[in-house]
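Provenance and format

Records in this collection were gathered into a single text stream. Each protein contributes a sequence line and a token line. The two records reproduced below are adjacent in the stream.
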Amino acid sequence: MDELASIVSENLTSLRKEKHLTQQELAALIGYSDKSISKWELGKAIPSVDILLKFAEFYGVTLDYLVTKGSTTKSSPEKESDRNKTNKIVIMAMAATFVLFAATAIYINSLITKTEPSMWIAFLYGIPAAAFIDALLDLKFFHRNTALWVLLSVVTWGLLFAVSMNFFFYLNQNIFFILLVGIPVQIGLILFSQVK
């Protein structure tokens, strides 16, 4: 057990130094205290598996790399991690594009069938729909990161704006006050994003 703690501490220390980070900077980036980082790097404690996985993801290495003595070649896992991240971002972009294509199809169909008024509102509903799908994908791929909270904010405000515009242009009712609902929702999102 002491040997494993020593191996993990050596690998964590070298990875942190390769990134030119202090223990305090690393602690802020991964959401743990600098005292915990210090204990792990001194070999006084071994991080739990979920924390080791977080380190592996952060540094772009495998879990095996963190627990293997003399781990020196990390270039291929890092490249693999970069490729995976790029693939995930492309998938998210494709999902958003699909939603916008669907909105375009609805709008063009309304023009072809001469629906009055035209369904340009589909684009406004497409924005929160695309953001919602990307938020789900972001949660699955990257867990809880800043982009997730930004996307959920876009969903909230986009949906409220689309509904108010729908009522204004199609039903001739001014319900822009519904945007006030977004304020407590936004505050809730900000507070929830701070929960570790």
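Adjacent record:
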Amino acid sequence: MLPALYSPLLQARTPDEFRDEIVRTTRQLGFDTVSAMVVIDPEPPAATAPEQAGDERPVALQRSEFVVIDNTPAAYRAVFDSSDLQQADPVMQYCKAYSIPIAWDQSTYVDAGRGPLWEEQARFGYRSGVALALHLPERHHFMLGIDRDGALPIDAGERQRLLSDIQVFTAYALDAAMRLLVPSRQQPDRPSLTRREVEVLSWTMAGKTAWEVGRILGISERTAVLHIGNSMRKLDCRNKNQAVLKALRLGLIH
């Protein structure tokens, strides 16, 4: 069954509604500010014939497209939008390279030699947080960061539960962001699922395990797992939850 905390994101119809929902969810998780960012990198330049000696033609450089939805405090907006901050921020640099969540605090900045940057942002409530980036096919990227004025949980178990919650939050936010923020011309192609794959995903959405799906459809658990795997591959998703969300967005299941 879809978690009640995150499922309203699937009903967002406009970027403003999406912003309202991610802010609501962020606050229910115990954080104050949130930033959801879609990045679309340009296509690599097409190969051209070797240039003749002395032929110095300018090369048109395309820039990545950024779409950001957030509730950044107005007083911090100029600093937050600064390209210099993006280059200096160790959390941003981490997210450019990895898809594993990072739980950060003052020590993250001090260890990276960016202590003064943390001091600056802490004045606006950015003392700790969690950030997660997903590097997707077709040069698409999605980053979600949530922040607060207090400390993160010290207990290892509690912190791990928080990171797990934020990973689920990111999966739902990704689906809504790709649907609402990415231009239709840049949307991924709609894949074709078999009738059985649609049935298996639909029962998975209802919270059924592969064993339960097999019993319902009269197939083996192994076959149900195979259909889930095929659906994940076709939808280009890393797990079954992402596959369900993407299938919902594309109208493949209801």
